[in-house]
From TrEMBL, chains A, B:
Organism: Hydrogenophaga crassostreae
Broad class of enzyme this protein falls into: oxidoreductase
Residues involved in substrate binding: 90, 100, 128, 222
Subunit structure, interactors included: Homodimer.
Protein name: 3-isopropylmalate dehydrogenase
Compartment list: Cytoplasm
Site (described: Important for catalysis): 135, 190
GO aspect biological process, one term: L-leucine biosynthetic process
EC number: 1.1.1.85
InterPro entries: IsoCit/isopropylmalate_DH_CS, IsoPropMal-DH-like_dom, Isopropylmalate_DH
Domain spans labelled Isopropylmalate dehydrogenase-like: 2-351
Family: Belongs to the isocitrate and isopropylmalate dehydrogenases family. LeuB type 1 subfamily.
Keywords: Amino-acid biosynthesis, Branched-chain amino acid biosynthesis, Cytoplasm, Leucine biosynthesis, Magnesium, Manganese, Metal-binding, NAD, Oxidoreductase
Job description of the protein: Catalyzes the oxidation of 3-carboxy-2-hydroxy-4-methylpentanoate (3-isopropylmalate) to 3-carboxy-4-methyl-2-oxopentanoate. The product decarboxylates to 4-methyl-2 oxopentanoate.
Length: 355, 355
């Protein structure tokens, strides 16, 4: 078993180092191999996803990913920007199923923008389709408009599209995930406006006939953005497309108030997966040793569970994280009065000690 | 001056009746003429936007709109569904500039999901482009895929597109609105993924050179969905496209906890406008006389301000609404202990009395 370790930019290197420390402590029989990705890879090799990095990723059972991006790359042409690395990995490895849990840890309820009673005990799972939709749809580009409101004017365009098998497979993933949870799926669409999402709704409804034990609810994306604020605990599994999922999964993460705690997994049909924290590269605090490594450590736990078939070890990590929280250890992003402020490294060490 | 009154479906008729009552009480020199729209128009004439209704709307200086939609029309073909009426009016009248204020009324802070300190005093303005983007972009439809991940499979697609003049005019609207407020515009895009929104960002940046007194910030839509939850008061004017604006404006409304209070305006370049509450037709409470008419009454105030050049009367209405809130009158959606529960009609009467 091989894990590709891609720390990336900003706080990526610091937080991944702690996750690797935790994995090492488990003494499991797998190899880890590191490579540059994102801005770091651009600086060294002129491309955010160099061939060697892509090859390593493809040849591995799982990828432990940090984060990519820094303002200093903002002026580069789009294909060279750090975030192309993550889009490229998703596409090249076919990582179509993105799991984004939004969980509110008991000890961190106070960090949320929401009133405690609305958020305490939150445990929802957003499943975002990750290789289709307007993210990758062709054609796209700039041109002179020949129709529309301003024929003759310069315009830019993108294509939203979903094929039946793409919707079917993500719907199966969602219904199967719901079976292991509270048996409720909310499929988010915009069927009242978009052809793509009328089709989405139709296909999800068809797939649902194979899962009579799971409840299916359809919700428009604008309403979903509202209901997440109003009553987040009313959701169990949310399934949606790439673009709506990008927006709603970030909204849901932020509702918890502790995005520094939230892992994510992106899987393909072979069980290969990319595991990364839900937060970004935070260049403003990079190198200061204060970033929260727990989302990355919990991503490593998801990796053990989903791609490496090591459920027991996954649970050991998750229990250790619960323990350090119970001990009152906090990085600055989740610090509150009466708790103990620790550095990135101290947090990693504490998790290892708690294993 | 002529106002087209289009109550629509669900609670639409009840809430519009109260707004008309308030307008009548002002004794201003304009005519009001009513017509059916949405499901009500479909039932009577077989189409949600009958020619006579469209003609009335076009011939008027302003449209006072209630709400459209009811589950019972869900099975109709898309072109006949109630929401096509509102899309049709936007398109036919060229109502490209949608103003969606998200204001938290002092007396209603407790109704929000958010902690009081995050939401008290909130006053942001979301400006949503309303006639372009993937809402109206051609081509769209269903077909057999010839490329993509699953050539040969059935697929559905839509086209996101924006032409330069469409972006320019909404950017001007946003910068001019910001000048009358706190001089800060946040332009929301997804330039890291979409050609359309890289172009959006470029054009907004160009237009900004004409407004050196206004601060311009660019933000990705996923981040905007998060920042609205984390620190909504950090925004002043938010400008974005039709699709992202649909999601973010609803999210922002719900943050206030009192969507029953929020008006909206949709304007074209001639100053004609459609004015409607931010909430929907709420068929579940229709006919019960309990809906909150204040968002519609405040929409009538916006109408007086933007389309009918009656600023003083607009302010009279707004002051009257403040007064009834101060008197402790509440419809059920904003009711809390220690206040007085009133019906739709009683609330309208109270506003008239307070004028
Ligand atoms: C960096 C960006 C391209 C990416 C996305 O939009 O998918 C990010 O926001 C995410 O959600 O992983
Ligand atoms: C009813 C629907 C088509 C409409 C939209 O998506 O624009 C509504 O959600 C709105 O925001 O006015």
């Amino acid at each position: 078993m091989k894990i590709a370790v891609l720390p990336g930019d900003g706080i990526g290197t610091e937080i991944v180092a702690e996750a690797v420390k935790v994995l090492d402590a488990l003494n499991l029989p797998f190899k880890m191999e590191s490579a540059l990705v994102g801005g770091a890879a651009y600086d060294a090799h002129g491309h955010p996803l160099p061939p060697a990095t892509l090859k390593l990723a493809k040849d591995s059972d799982a990828i432990l990913f940090g984060a990519v991006g820094d303002w200093k790359y903002d002026k580069l042409d789009r294909p060279l920007r750090p975030e192309q690395a993550i889009l490229g990995l998703r596409k090249e490895l076919g990582l179509f199923a993105n799991f984004r849990p939004a969980i509110c840890y008991e000890q961190l309820v106070g960090a949320s923008s929401l009133k405690p009673e609305l958020i305490a005990g939150l445990d929802i799972l957003i499943i975002r389709e990750l290789t289709g939709d307007i993210y990758f749809g062709q054609p796209r580009g700039r041109r002179i408009a020949t129709d529309g409101h301003f024929p003759g004017a310069e315009e830019a365009f993108d294509t939203m599209r979903y094929a039946r098998p793409e919707i079917e497979r993500i719907a199966h993933v969602a219904f199967q995930a719901a079976r292991k949870r509270n048996k409720k799926v909310t499929s988010v669409d915009k069927a009242n406006v978009l052809e793509t999402f009328q089709f989405w709704k139709d296909v999800v409804t068809e797939v649902h006939t194979e899962y009579p034990d799971v409840e299916l609810q359809h919700m428009y994306v604008d309403n979903a953005a509202m209901q997440l604020v109003k009553a987040p605990k009313a959701f169990d599994v949310v399934v949606t497309g790439n673009m709506f999922g990008d927006i709603l999964s970030d909204e849901a993460s932020m509702l918890t108030g502790s995005i520094g705690m939230l892992p994510s997994a992106s899987l393909n049909s072979k069980g290969q997966g990319l595991y990364e924290p839900s937060h970004g590269s935070a260049p403003d605090i990079a190198g200061k040793g204060i970033a929260n490594p727990l989302a990355t450590i919990l991503s490593a736990a998801m990796m053990l569970r989903f791609s490496l078939n090591q459920e027991a070890s996954a649970q050991r990590i998750e229990a250790a994280v619960q323990k350090v929280l119970a001990q009152g250890l906090r990085t600055v992003d989740i610090y509150s009065e009466g708790t103990t402020k620790v550095s990135t490294r101290e947090m990693g060490d504490a998790v290892v000690a708690a294993l």
